[in-house]
Amino acid sequence: MTSGANPFGGCCGGSAAPIMLRCAQLQGMFVSQRLDGSGSLHRSRHERPLSGGCKGIALVLSGLGAGGTERVACSLANHWASDGRKIHVIALDRENDPSYYDYHTDVELVRLGLPPQRRPAAQAALAIARRALAIRNAIRNAAPDVVLSFLTRQNILTLAATRGMSVPVVVSERSNPERQHPGPLWHWLRNRLYPRAARLVVMTNGARDFFSPAIAARTSIIPNPVVLPSGWRARRGNNRLVAVGRLETVKRFDRLLRAFHAVAARHPAWTLTIWGEGPERAALEQLTRRLGLDGRVELPGVTEMPGGWIETADAFVLTSDYEGWPNVLAEAMASGLPVIAVDCPHGPSDMIRHRHDGFLVSPDEPADLTAAIDELLGDPLLRDRLGTASAASAARFAPAPIMDLWEEIVADVCGRTMPKAPSPVSVGDRRAGRAGRELPQPQGGPAG
């Protein structure tokens, strides 16, 4: 999920420097004071202890549309609201924008009407300030005990907005920070502001390692929960290898087609189905014809029932160049499918132990992917064993244990006095410390 159009327009080029200077001035405004309606100043949050419990929680999002981040935020909000907590969901989108997910009736939705837009460079800093001030006012009105923010740009805006306020802020990165760059200005602001967060939440060990040790020490790893479709029923025995994802270059379905072509003659009963839609459809259809795979490969588009593809699949394969957290891989494992995944950054190596609960193959050796597909399609006993093991491993991604990890963070940041934030440090330092919470590992023998 992305946070919308880049609001900086052309500022990522030579015009970025003056905008950075203006944002530094705005940042200084948020550092130096907190203004209430009377214009009076409040003490820094580092001078004020937090309360012992979290009865009020505010979540900050770019919008309430469809997406994995929005689904997780909605699940958290509904869970906490059902516990009797005071929950506010603050979104930058418009009041009349539809909410894709259904929120608990006790969750208060605050729509700011300031969605990110592509703007000339001269207007970018003012747009940032306007959104940050709107978030600040919404948080002040909600008066939460803790704020949770999701996605890089919203995290930056929220940290700027809460300067001088006593409320702790937990920021959550939902992508692969190595490969999905926010742009030079947002990168600079992230370096300046992330050290101020009470906690950083990422989804993989690799994402945590992207950040410098000072940040990684306050980082927790919480993957997305897996929620399978209600009432789904496995209908195996179709000899169907399945992949799922947007038809775009990064998913590397071309690599999958070539690997399947290499083994197709040895497994004539098997077909390949690639669910999804996107700009690479024509190229993939052309490659399918060129490889002589007509009748063996299907590209049916987007399934009408989200997650419904798990019912008729017999094996699953992921071939991406990179991922943030591959939800479809987790869903395949949870449904008991045997899986093959290219060991891309990030996610597959957090989920799979090679030959214990799936195949983890090198992205640099196409022959490894071909060999894994060949072995899996030709051995039904292996498919059964790996499918059983993958379902057991994926149990750690069920909603209940994932919710427990979020509960731990909320309880921790609300139950202590905020430490003085360290000086700004750069992200992208691969020497990150290991003090943060490790991704829970499945039980069983060592990886093969």
TrEMBL record:
Q: Keywords for this entry?
A: Glycosyltransferase, Transferase
Bias category Basic and acidic residues: which stretches? 428-437
Per its UniProt record, what InterPro entries does this chain match?
Answer: Glyco_trans_4-like_N
Glycosyltransferase subfamily 4-like N-terminal domain residues? 67-224
Question: Which parts of the sequence are annotated with region: Disordered?
Answer: 417-448
List, in alphabetical order, the Gene Ontology terms for molecular function in this entry. Answer: glycosyltransferase activity
What is this protein called in UniProt?
Amylovoran biosynthesis protein AmsD
Q: Origin organism of this chain?
A: Allosphingosinicella deserti
Pfam families in the record: Glyco_trans_1_4, Glyco_trans_4_4
Q: Mind telling me which SUPFAM superfamilies this protein's record contains?
A: UDP-Glycosyltransferase/glycogen phosphorylase
Look up the domain of life of the source.
Answer: Bacteria
